[in-house]
Here is the input.
Amino acid sequence: MSAPAVNDLLPAGALRPVGAPAPAPRTGRTPPAHSPRPAGFADALERASGELTFSGHAAARLQRRGIDVGRDVMARLGEGVQRAAAKGSRDAVVLVDDTAFVVSVANRTVITAVDRDHMRDQVFTNIDSAVIA
Here is the structure.
C-alpha cells in the first residue's frame, strides 16, 4: 500500500503557487457584486469638497517664480473657480491680484500659474472663460 499523496491530505485549493495571494475565507455568503464607480463620481466628490489641487507643473511654476499662495489667495482662487463652474466653464484663467491661474474647472486642478513679470508674452489657449477674483 502506498502513502497518500500530499494533495489527498489537504482540502481542495489549499496549495497555491509561491507568492500567490491567499484565497478569501469562505463565509457561506455570496459577496455583493461591486461595480466600479462611475467615471464622474470621483470628480463630483472632489468638486463637492471644494478643494483645489495643483498639478506638478503648477507647483513647480509657483516655486520657481516665488508666487505666494496663502489662505487669502486660495480662498479667492477657489471662489473664482466656483463662479466659473456655475457658468458651465471647463477651463478658465482666474486672475488673483498679479497672478493668472489656468484652471481645469471640471477637475478643480490648477494647471499653471503666471505672475505679472512673466505675463507679458503669454498667450492663454484652450480656455473658455476668464474670472477676476
